[in-house]
Amino acid sequence: MSKGKILVTGGTGYIGSHTTAELIEAGYEVEILDNLCNSKVEVLDRIEKIAGVRPKFYDVDLRDAEKLAGVFKSGGFDTVMHFAGLKAVGESVEQPLRYYENNVGGTINLLECMQEYGCKKIVFSSSATVYGVQDTPKYVETMSTGGTISSPYGKTKYMIEEILKDVTVADSAFAVTILRYFNPIGAHRSGLLGEDPNDRPNNLMPIIMKVAKGEIGELTIFGDDYPTPDGSCVRDYIHVVDLAEGHLAAMEQMGPGVQIYNLGSGAGTSVFEMVKAFEKASGAELPCRVIGRRAGDLAEFYADPGLAKEKLGWEVKLTVDDAMEDTLRFLRTSA
Ligand code: NAD
Ligand code: UFG
Questions:
Q1: CA torsion sign, 81 to 85 to 87 to 92?
Q2: From CA 245, how far away is CA 303, in angstroms rounded?
Q3: Beta bridge partners of 268
Q4: Statement: the pTM of the whole predicted model exceeds 0.85
Q5: How far, in Å, from the CA of 203 to the mean position of ligand 2?
């Protein structure tokens, strides 16, 4: 018997697909809703290969309120895991209205349906970007949010967090868990799932993958003059399978009201160290060139993951080196 029925929005995407596989393997029944704007329907075959079950799939856009209501009418979901959203920081600066409409508008439709059909548990994919600029690089959940966010993308995450908090004030039966991810990397150990965006990627790892495949000539490193040990920016990279397990741990500890957790490793890795780790795993040199700083980049930030460890019993098990090995396996499998 299933442990519960979960609707995963954005479930054919990078983090949603890994989490779906973990949920199925843990005994949950999962249905996926995605409009495939940044993922492919073949991911369902790959989830089936890994977990032995093909999740029911709704090719639905969250902005289509009528179709969304149809999903909930027949759904009977216990919990929603809400990954669906647009996530390209630079694009959000150029197209702010599209980001607010998709991310904030889509979430409002989702919450309205949840309320109407009596599904009152939601786990939301937020981001460390909501902390903005802080005095120290180690971000803890009690820090202020929303003040100095540099992109419309980041602001949509902050706005959705605030909307979710207001919903629990209005309806005390609502349970909300906000997960603030640091920098997800890596792939499923089978090599079947990984990050495979439909458009040109903006994040470091998918760009490294494209350089390794020869689709992009070189990695341009955005600055080597930051006040960090080697001059390049430092981030907290978290293996996507650890992240997926964090969702499971968080969902199993949900109660009424709002809970907020950082999901990160607590350790920082520089861009140069990431390049070296990839080269070590692949055995080949990665063509790189240092150029100027990218607007909006912070020198260094990483998670204080203490709260997730204390309350959820969750912490990362995998390393950046594991992520590189798994990424290479995914590259070979998807080639
Ligand atoms: P992804 O693009 O791989 O997955 C998101 C999925 O949502 C895609 O499959 C896309 O087709 C779908 N989607 C987008 N808008 C939709 C809509 N209106 N209706 C239905 N489906 C829609 O991204 P990901 O890396 O898996 O990220 C998942 C979530 O985590 C996102 O909300 C993202 O903002 C958040 N997040 C990601 C990172 C990261 O670095 N990957 C960091 C922090 C937070
Ligand atoms: N970088 C390069 N060259 C590239 C791409 C990235 O040098 O071609 C560097 C960046 O300067 C940064 C690091 O690699 O120092 C990581 O960059 P990403 O774009 O992969 O990630 P960010 O830390 O900038 O952004 C991530 C998520 C956002 C989120 C933000 C804060 O992608 O969604 O963390 O949590 F908003």
A1: negative
A2: 17
A3: none
A4: yes
A5: 5
